Amino acid sequence: MTNDWETIIGLEVHAQLSTESKIFCGCSTRFGDEPNANTCPTCLGLPGALPVLNWRAVELGARAALALGLHINERSIFARKNYFYPDLPKGYQISQYDQPFSTNGTLEIMTADRDEAGHAHEWKPMTIQITRLHLEEDAGKNVHEGLPDVDRFSYIDLNRAGTPLAEIVTEPDFRSSWQAYDYVNHVRRALQWVGASDADMEKGNLRCEANVSVRRKGDTKFGTKVELKNLNSVRFMQKAIEFEVERHIKTLESGGQLVQETLLWDERLNETRPMRSKEEAHDYRYFPEPDLPPLIVTNQFVEEVRASLPELPGPRAKRFAEQYGLSYADASQLTGDRALADYYESAVEASGSNARATANWIRSELLRELENAGLSAGKSPIPAMKLGALVRMIDDGKISGKQGKDVLVEMFATGKSAAVIVEEKGLIQVSDTGEIDRVIDEVIAANPNQLEAYRGGKEALFGFFVGQVMKASKGKANPKVVMSA
Ligand SMILES: [Zn+2]
Asked: pLDDT tens across 314-362, in order?
């Protein structure tokens, strides 16, 4: 029975820090340039070339560490991690080992179980212990062309070699694949939020690995674990974990044995497969990097970085829920990125503090238009002030909600303000009750049978009459006034 088992997951995230130059040389970190265009003797690993630490990488590493609740150590040491691979010209990676940049993180995330369709139910807080966040350099890239053994060519692109990374390692705190999923999304958003990383998985600047094992409930010893690599999206990671948990339970329940191994996720076959053993490295023979002094950060530096951080997404979502009376799911959506959260708050102000209506207009109408246009909130053709003004017009009864939707689409396409569009289209809603009374009289006269039925107790026909009045006024009558007439 699946219910007899407990799943244990620990995660490792590698995030590329968004510096303009590499961590130990002045080469550009730009993505998509000609292969090997951004290289120099240091990142090519040529003899005699020496590394010099890029302080911007330390600042961004500190922003990431503080955003994730870690403690920054005053003194940390760079270490050589030795292994041979074609994309690693020095024969070692400069990383950190027993004295990392930051340790002991406590991070609160929100997580929820999902149903079969993947819908979340009941978001709850959960505390994750982050063991460490350390700084290191990335390796280059091997690019393969053609089929294995048939016209196979392999190339090496060292543009990425020496790009700064933050490696973020958690304790084995996750008990389900969805908790892992929610954590990685939290980390991704937090890193983008504080400007530490673009955290774009498609460009490979956020990568994750998962350690997965299962044990019978009540057991204190961990089961045999596997390491999952090559997880190119958060969703693939979730699927790969789910696949492994099922495989482990099936194997153990049928009396089989598990092997500790490294597995890759095959997104075409939707299954894991073992990594070829030669792709694995076992003994890294770490030792302190003799070419770099210890990294010392002062308390003053840490406090300056802390003071420069914006309000973080978790606390901001909580504040949105409390201050604006939103559900957690809505508040969380509106804090999905920092520009959207800023947009929302400006729009609320311009709407005359109509926080819920503004949230609804953004969530249901604006985000759809943005998505169709492939834009983020920061690039919205409708500025927040103008959206707020539209919400206010609807709230004041100047136009109906239905007209508001058309106006929003027009605003999005033309950049004009709601007031201009309403004026141009002659959309001003009729709230003059004398005018509405006249239309009502016409509608009643035109529908004697329905009137009879309504008087006879068929109250559902009330809606029919309101609809007829709206139609006769070409949607200009204010429904609130019609209903009360
Ligand atoms: Zn270089």
From this structure: 899 999 999 999 998 899 899 988 999 999 999 999 999 899 999 999 9
Query: What does the alpha-carbon distance between residue 50 and residue 437 come to, in Å, rounded to a whole number?
Result: 86
Q: Name the β-bridge partners of 206.
A: 15
Q: Is the pLDDT of residue 108 over 60?
A: yes
Query: Which residue's entry shows tokens 């350690």?
Result: 211
List, for residues 417-449, the tens digit of each pLDDT value: 998 898 888 877 656 666 667 777 777 778 878
Distance CA 134, CA 99 (A): 9
Q: State whether the Cα torsion 226-227-229-231 is positive or negative.
A: positive
What is the number of H-type helices and E-type strands within the chain? 16, 16
- Furthest-apart CA pair in the chain: how many Å? 99
CA of 230 to the centre of ligand 1 (A): 26
Q: How many CB atoms lie under 10 A from the CB of residue 17? A: 27
* DSSP code at position 28: B
Place of tokens 């009864």: 397
Q: 339 C-alpha to center of ligand 1: Å?
A: 33
Domain 433-484 grouped into CATH 1.10.10.410: yes
CB 15 within 8 A of CB 64: yes
**pTM (predicted TM-score):** 0.82
DSSP assignment of 174-219, as one string?
B-SHHHHHHHHHHHHHHHHHTTS----GGGTSEEEEEEEEEEETT-
Give residue limits of the domains in the chain. 2-301, 311-425, 433-484
Contact 180, 2 (CB under 8 A): no
Give the single-character DSSP code of 23: S
Contacting residues for 162 by C-beta, under 8 A, at least 6 apart: 22, 23, 24, 25, 27, 42, 43, 137, 138
Token digits of residue 290:
């003799």
d(CA 390, CA 396) in angstroms, rounded, equals 10
How many angstroms is it from 207 CA to the middle of ligand 1? Answer: 23
In this prediction, what percent of the chain has a pLDDT beyond 90? Answer: 68
Task: Calculate how far, in angstroms, residue 43's C-alpha sits from the geometric centre of ligand 1.
Answer: 4
Angle between helices 55-67 and 177-193 (to 10 degrees): 130
Residue 86's H or E segment, with its range, is none
- How close is the Cα of 158 to the center of ligand 1, in Å? 9
